[in-house]
């Protein structure tokens, strides 16, 4: 089975094993020919290449089976059943409900005319019938049709000879109103279903992992094609994966929530243009221990849902999509889709670049490994971490204001000694992001040939501080 090896890496040791094109190694699954196909999976495909719970278009890949008294339960909620069934069955029920009611009441009118002797006395002007101009079942059926829909062509009408006929007339009028209201409500409900509104809500084809504000994040994009907005829109995400509990119980489809936010806020978004939804990979994230290599062989599914109120109808709608590990691009960012047109003074959204991404330098290790490296470097330099439990505290700063301004936060490390006399710092030799004599660090962080401070320079160091610089090292982990 192909588990989707589609992550692009920039690690030279890995690329040398699988082959490379320049410095970029592109992995593709060559285990079986179906893995090379473009994934176009139907709802009831007999050969599913990828096992997923939610299809990309939002349909659930779940079939209910062996339900006790299933038909009886469906008939108890006949309205929802008729709304959910396909259109051809709805139209069939619509036509049958009217035709059967016409035939049923037509038979009653025929029996009334037959019992009163109207059919036997046809043509006798001295006989006063219950319903005029009824000579058989066909004329009785026409009178039933005219009565139920108040057509009234003027020939057939009821008289006061038969009280039972007056009762049937009232009963058929009430029944016709109920049937019309019921069937029109079903058709209207099918036309205005929120599920149809969800077809114009778009999710990006791929999700990406990159650093944002010094923290690894999972990003995906959502958009709305219509001008009518989604009110109170909010996004939720869950990961479905296999889990083994402490007692040894195996949960094959364990669902875990993933905290998401939009542009630094909460899960609520102002949905006026395509928005990038962010999941921060911190200690509470289920992706905290996954590296780029782990992403290649792990099996999980991230289900994302967008809910909101349709501005036009006031009904609540929900759009769904999902991402497999093969659909998550490591070290990518989304391209911008919103531009400002000076000619018209409007903001234009270009959906041709909605799924486009570009590569950025991103550590290949997991967020856990990156945090451990930062923590170890802080410990070696005597820097105390902040008390916060989130990953944002990993880039802790000192109380010195000038040092705090110089610190960056993009997820990469360097050491910058802070001296008591700032004038002495201007003459220091800076190489590979290390000022002064290098500490004993992992070879992936500092090269072995890092030069030290020239002999004879005696400078007293107060403390060392962890700061960040723009990356030039892909083999961090």
TrEMBL record:
Region (Disordered): 378-409
Regions that span the bilayer: 89-112, 166-189
Keywords of the record: Ion channel, Ion transport, Membrane, Potassium, Potassium transport, Transmembrane, Transmembrane helix, Transport, Voltage-gated channel
Main location class: membrane
Keyword set includes Acetylation: no
Reaction equation(s) it catalyzes: K(+)(in) = K(+)(out)
UniProt topology in membrane: Multi-pass membrane protein
Family: Belongs to the inward rectifier-type potassium channel (TC 1.A.2.1) family.
Protein name from the UniProt record: Uncharacterized protein
Inward rectifier potassium channel C-terminal domain sequence ranges: 201-374
GO process annotations (BP): potassium ion import across plasma membrane; regulation of monoatomic ion transmembrane transport
Domain named Potassium channel inwardly rectifying transmembrane: residues: 55-194
Any matching Pfam family: IRK
InterPro entries to which the protein is assigned, alphabetical: Ig_E-set, IRK_C, K_chnl_inward-rec_Kir, K_chnl_inward-rec_Kir_cyto, Kir_TM
GO CC field: monoatomic ion channel complex; plasma membrane
A molecular function GO annotation: inward rectifier potassium channel activity
Localization annotation: Membrane
